[in-house]
Amino acid sequence: MSNISKDESSKHLFLNSVIGFLGVLLLILLVALFSRILYPRIVTDRIQEDPSLISEVIQLEVLNGCGITGIATRFTDKLREYGFDVVETGNYDHFDVSKTFIISRSGQMENAYRVADALGVSHQQVLREQAPEYYLDVTLIIGSDYQSLNLH
Fold first, then answer.
1. Which of 49, 101, 105, 123 lies 20 to 30 A from 139 at CA?
2. Positions of E strands within 2-137
3. Contact, 111 vs 80, CB < 8 A?
4. Can you tell me the distance from the alpha carbon of 124 to that of 136, in angstroms, rounded to the nearest whole number?
């Protein structure tokens, strides 16, 4: 008789432990549910539909492709007056570029077209060459036709 009572007692202990564990689990789930309702998750994804909301400032580099001393600096000053953010100037790979061209680095052609329109460069001289290692929007390579561009 005492063996049966011991078995029943151990069964009750096991069932009480399971009920206690499930009760604690239910309490945790209810707290998580109410905290999610009271404090909703903040979405941190970038807006893909309208990239103009991310940044209105166009960052670009100006490279001398014609070999005229100081030409990149002259264009840098003028582009900054137009409101562009020139982050780097320098020389192109070679100095025999005949026609000025613009490279869209971010893939947003609108930014490259805005630079082209400001300088009077044809949209046919705008290329797309996305490069994630570049942290700028546009590269301007000044060619030998720099005197025909809008610097005034």
1. 49
2. 59-64, 85-91, 101-104, 126-128
3. no
4. 21
